[in-house]
Amino acid sequence: MNKFMARAVELAADNVRSGGQPFGAVLVKNGEIIAEGVNEMHIKHDVSGHAELLAIRRGQEKLQISDLSGFSMYASGEPCAMCLTAMYFAGMDQIYYCASVEDAAEAGLGKSKQIYDDLRHAREDRGLKIVHMPLQQGQENPMQLWKDKQ
User: Fold this and answer.
1) What is the DSSP code (8-state) at residue 46?
2) Radius of gyration, alpha carbons of the chain
3) Using one digit for the tens of pLDDT, what is the confidence trace for 18-34?
4) Alpha-carbon distances, residue 10 vs 106, 118, 150 (angstroms)
5) How far apart are CA 9 and CA 33, in angstroms?
6) In this structure, is the dihedral angle defined by the CA atoms of residues 82, 85, 91 and 93, taken in order, positive or negative?
């Protein structure tokens, strides 16, 4: 196990001992740790307080950048769909993980696997109902405003 994954696992274990879930993450660029995070949902009661998201937020704030091209994430657990999506949006190059979503489900943390399974279904067949509500005639179109500014 390389030193970055070992650190992510260490953070995860420490977080469990502190009352949190077994997730730690380390954001790396050019062989240097830029930022770290652990799941803080038990502290801040914020569903987005996942280890990977916090490492990304801290790294972006520290470096004052949005684009994380050339960065890697080392996570003690396979990223959930929310964290994975954030990594796509940030332009990250690589993600390394230790425990799979199946491992997490076996440990009693099955939400990530459940969400990944649900996303395989057509929109109308998912557990969370998603309803399209198009703009009404005469409403300002934010997408067109954006397109016009480009």
Assistant:
1) -
2) 18
3) 999 999 999 999 999 99
4) 20, 31, 45
5) 14
6) positive
**Among 73, 119, 132, which Cα is nearest to 98's?**
73
Is residue 11 classed as helix, strand or coil in its secondary structure? helix
Residues annotated catalytic, as ranges: 52
Identify the bridge partners of residue 31 per DSSP, sorted by sequence position.
none
Across 19-28, b (16+ Cβ under 10 Å) vs e yields ebbbbbbbbb
Cα 107 from chain centroid?
20
Burial of 71 (0-12, 13-18, 19+ CB in 10 A): buried
Separation CA 144–CA 135 (nearest Å) = 12
Q: Could you report the per-residue pLDDT of 80-134, keeping only the tens digit for each? A: 999 999 999 999 999 999 999 999 999 999 999 999 999 999 999 999 999 999 9
Report the SS3 class of residue 94. Answer: strand
Residues in the chain: 150
The reply to whether the predicted model has a pTM over 0.90 is: yes
